[in-house]
Amino acid sequence: MRKRIAVIGGGIAGLAAALRLRDLTPPDTEIIVYEQSGALGGKLRTGELAGVTVERGAESFLMTGADGRESAAVALVRRLGLEKALVHPRKVPAALALGGRLAPMPAGTLVGVPADVTALGDVAQAAAGHDTDNGHPLLAVGQDVAVGALVRERYGDEVVDRLVDPMLGGVYAGRADRISLDVAMPQLARTARVEHTLSAAVRAAQAASGRVPGQPVFGALEGGLSRLVGAAATAGGARISLGLPVRELARTAHGWRLLLGPVPAPQTDDVDAVVLAVQAKPSARLLAPVAPAAAEAVGGLDYASVALVALALPPGTPLPELSGFLVPPSAGTLVKAATFVTRKWDRPENGPVIVRVSLGRAGEEDRLQFDDAVLTERAWRELGELIGGPLPPPAASWVQRWGGGLPQYAPGHLDRLAVARAALPPGLALAGAAFDGVGIPACVASGERAAEDVSKAMAA
Ligand SMILES: Cc1cc2nc3c(=O)[nH]c(=O)nc-3n(C[C@H](O)[C@H](O)[C@H](O)COP(=O)(O)OP(=O)(O)OC[C@H]3O[C@@H](n4cnc5c(N)ncnc54)[C@H](O)[C@@H]3O)c2cc1C
C-alpha cells in the first residue's frame, strides 16, 4: 500500500530528510513537510539591503566535514546541481576587538584553541607551565567537559576569555564555560582522550582534520542560501504544508496521527513514519505522549537569542581591511560580532557599504528587549566605537531577530541524545540543530540520517 511520511519542520534538516526520503522510498510514497511558519528554510533566509544580497540568518557553511571529506552541505549543493553557484569568502583577515583595538585573529587555532600558546602574541597570555604531561590522557573515555573548563585548566583564563569565548560566541552566541567539548569540537574531544597535553591534542586534531591548506574553509551560494532551500524543496518533490503547526503526535495501530492547526479548528493527518526536525521545546512537547523518556532527555536544551542588524552605510565609508571581527564577552558590548559584507563577499564595492552586526549572547535575552530603532542605533554606535571612529548614519537598515535561535549544548549532550534516541519507537526519528550540531552541514547530515532510520524501519 502507498506509504505516507511526515517531516515536521521545514528548516534545512527537514528538507534534507525529505530529499533523502525521496531517494530511499518507492516513488509512490507521499512525503509531506509540515512547516508552521509561512516559509521554508528556518534559519536559512536570504534577504537584501540597498540592492545587495544579505543573509538574514546563516551566512555560509563549512566545506569540509569532521572526517576531512567534503561536508554534507557541499554534497547537498552538488546533489541539487548548484555547484556552479558555490562561492567563497574573499581572503581578507578577521580580527578580535580587544581593549579598544582590532587585533588580527591568530592563525592556526582550532576554534580559538591554539596548539602553540606562545604564538598568540599579545592577543592572549597563556598560563605558563599548566599544560604538563601528568601521565594520562586529558579526558577519560566517555568523559565530556565544557570547552572552557579544559582550556582554562591547561592554558589559563586569558586564552578562553579573549580567544575561545569570542570564537564560540560567533558560532553559538554561547560561552565556552557552558558548551560541550564533544559537540563543539568533536575532533579535539577525540584526541583529548588519547593525548596527555592540550597542545598535543590540538596538533593531533588538526592533523586528523584532513584539511588541505589553501583550500577554502567556508562556502555559500551566489544569490544566497535560500536557493539551497528552494532547490531542496523542489527536488524532494514533497508536499509542502505551510502555516500550520503540528500540535500533537499520537500512535495509531499502524503508524502516527498528527494533530495540526489552531485549537478551535484542528485537522488530523495519518502517516506511517515521522521525522521530527524542530527545535528542542516543540520536539519535547510532541514527543511527550509517544516517547516520554525521549521528551525528557531533549526538553532541557537551552537556547540563546540573537538579533542581526544590517546597516547600509554611504558608499566610500572607510572600514578596516577586514572581513569582520569578533568581540569577547568581557568587552560588555551588545555587539558580539560584525561582518563587513561588501568586503567579505563578492559584492559591488562602489555601492553602499554593508555591515551585518550580530547582537546578543546566551543568557542576555533581556538586553535585546528594545525596539528596532533602538537596537539599530546601538549597533551602529557600538560598531563605530569598536572600529575606532564614528560612522556616518546608515541610509537603510533592517533588524532580524532570532529568539531562541541557537542551541547551547551543555556537557553530556551526546549522552542525553543517546537516551532520547534509544527511547524512540521505530518509525520516529529526530533531526536538526536541537540534536546533532548547529552548523548547516551537521543539520543536513542529521536530516539524511533520520530519513535513513525511518525508511529502514518502514522496510522492516
Ligand atoms: C543568526 C544565525 C546565524 C547562523 N549562521 C550560521 C552560519 O553562518 N553557518 C552555519 O553553518 N550555521 C549557522 N547558523 C546555524 C544554522 O543556521 C542552524 O543551526 C540550522 O539552519 C538549523 O536548521 P534546522 O532545520 O535544524 O532548524 P530550523 O532552521 O530552526 O528549522 C526548524 C523549523 O521547524 C519549524 N517548526 C517548529 N515547530 C514546529 C511545529 N510544531 N510544526 C511545524 N513546524 C515547526 C520552525 O518554524 C522552523 O522553520 C546560524 C544560526 C543563526 C540563528
TrEMBL record:
It comes from the Bacteria. Keywords: Cytoplasm, FAD, Flavoprotein, Heme biosynthesis, Oxidoreductase. It is an enzyme of class 1 (oxidoreductase). It catalyses: coproporphyrinogen III + 3 O2 = coproporphyrin III + 3 H2O2. One of its GO terms (molecular function) is oxygen-dependent protoporphyrinogen oxidase activity. The keyword Oxidoreductase applies. Coiled coil: none annotated. Pathway: Porphyrin-containing compound metabolism; protoheme biosynthesis. The keyword Oxidoreductase applies. Its EC number is 1.3.3.15. It is found in: Cytoplasm. InterPro entries: Amino_oxidase, FAD/NAD-bd_sf, Protoporphyrinogen_oxidase, Zeta_carotene_desat/Oxidored. Belongs to the protoporphyrinogen/coproporphyrinogen oxidase family. Coproporphyrinogen III oxidase subfamily. Involved in coproporphyrin-dependent heme b biosynthesis. Catalyzes the oxidation of coproporphyrinogen III to coproporphyrin III. This is Coproporphyrinogen III oxidase. It comes from Paractinoplanes aksuensis. The gene is hemG.
